[in-house]
Amino acid sequence: MSLGRGEAPDVIADARLTGSDRTDPFGSDPVDIHLADGLVVDVAPAGALPRSGRVLDADGGWVVPGLWDHHVHTVQWALSAQRVPLGGATSAAHAAALMGAAAPLPDGRRVGSGFRDAFWPDTPALATLDAATGDVPTYLINADVHSVWLNTAALRREGFEPDDSGILREEPAFEISRRLNAVDASVSDPLVDRMATDAASRGVVGLVDLDMSWNEDAWVRRLAAGFDALRVSFGIYPQFLDRAIAEGLQTGDVARGAASGSSARSATGSRSSELVRVGPLKVITDGSLGTRTAACSHAYPGDPHNHGVISVDLATLVDLMTRATAAGIASAIHAIGDVANSHALDAFTATGAWGTIEHAQLVAHSDIPRFARLGVGASVQPEHAVDDRDLTDTVWAGQTAQPYPLRALADSGANLLFGSDAPVSPLDPWAAMAAAVFRTRDGREPWQPHQRVDAATALSASTRGGSARPARVEPGDLGDLAVCEHDPLAADEAQLRSMRVSATLLGGRLTHVA
Q: Which intervals hold domain Amidohydrolase (predicted)?
């Protein structure tokens, strides 16, 4: 039987199981996975039980739990489809020329994203950008999103006084991104749908949305319009915390208004409105590596007074997390430098909050065991280690803390949760797994191979519960599944990065079928 997107198979036939800590007796033998009401109800040797109802032929493919991306800026990632890609820009002059040649968006602005200026031979300057772009407001967003390069027309449009560089960093840069992302829903929602469809084609069933806005209303609107491709947990930023508390939001609750906005049941009997839930308080406490603002114990090379920035001091962070915890809201604390990670762990200690540290890119050796002791998840982006390897070896050459300590965190018992930080890296869990397991890309020697993790850990970290509480394919579990062409636990780097997914199921319903 040929099944299409939206249908709910009763049996996945001739599949093979894989994953960590399996208790089933099947090994690599083919099995049938029986589904009902959005759940796995039985796993049996292939053909041992009647294959009644709708059958999806896995054709010997490997079934894994549905994958999650635990850190996505959803609208900003979706909008990148209409922005000028600048990842290949080799200089400031080159990036400016690319923008000058680009057609403006319908709103009259040019927007590019993804530049990495750390190794450019020239320095971004306002005059360079103005000469290439003229009077058209032009915005170039750094790959790490912590800085934005604007021409004079854009700076004046946004109410900023031009200086010699045209660069805005940290909060002013975030404000520019918020304004650029605040497009009409008729523009953003179709792009979000396209993003979700692409994610489902990679086996993704859920994501944590950390857009810098009041996210609940947007997701209720999308559900009412028929969005049904992914599960979503949405973040709450400090400027919205009082509102969230006053309105009674708690982490894990179904988005309010969703049930009334979308009462349709899927073929599995589960409400599509329950796909979107309240997530954590998101606090950005320091900068980034690429913008040289991550808060570090040692100064940046050639800049002895620059240790990065702490954008939220410890007392304020403790207050925010205390109020969130008392209201039943988890915490997700952005910390990249070792000083910021220490402060975040101190705040978790002081408040009894639960949740995650986002990024954990440079961690003092003495702080690594604290994640597990405090029950704080390490929400990390393995592709960043590969993207930033040369930058880390230069900009952080004098640091004594451990960069990108995946293996050390895993060995200490910390719960790893993998993500992309899209648009910083593409939303692709297979790339994240490949980077974590092989610590390389493009044929280069592995970078800091002692921080590799095994493939089973990487796969688990890419599921809903993370490496310490991985999703499984067992009776009673959610029918959130993906069928892929290779066993991820035995795949080489190229096979992981190019993994073909033939089917993805969300609550037993097909969200992708090849």
A: 54-511
What is the token pair recorded at 478? 């959610």
> Which of 145, 140, 89 is CA-nearest to residue 110?
140
The distance of Cα 326 from the centroid of its chain, to the nearest Å, equals: 27
Give me 291's structure tokens.
């913008």
The first and second tokens of residue 177, run together, are 């991104």
Residue 47 to residues 22, 30, 31, 132, 198: CA-CA distances in angstroms? 21, 9, 8, 66, 33
Distance, CA of 476 to CA of 478 (rounded, Å): 7
What dihedral do alpha carbons 141, 284, 196, 56 form, nearest 10°?
A: 140
Predicted local distance difference test score (pLDDT) of residue 23 = 87
What is the C-alpha to C-alpha distance for residues 19 and 22, in angstroms, rounded to an integer?
A: 7
Residues of the chain with pLDDT under 50: 260-270
* CA-atom Rg of the chain in angstroms: 23
* Number of CB atoms found within 10 A of residue 22's CB: 14
Classify strands 481-484 and 501-506 as parallel, antiparallel or unpaired.
Answer: antiparallel
pLDDT at 273: 67
pLDDT computed for residue 150 by the predictor: 98
Do the beta carbons of residue 180 and residue 138 sit within 8 Å? no
Q: For the chain, list the domains and their CATH numbers.
A: 1-65+471-514 (2.30.40.10), 83-181 (3.10.310.70), 184-276 (no CATH), 285-469 (3.20.20.140)
Q: Print the SS3 string covering 89-155.
A: CCCHHHHHHHHHHCCCCCCCCEEEEEECCCCCCCCCCHHHHHHHHCCCCEEEEECCCCEEEECHHHH
Place of tokens 């749908």: 193
* pTM for the full predicted model: 0.95
102's tokens: 């680009």
d(CA 13, CA 56): 6
Encoding tokens for residue 104? 């403006």
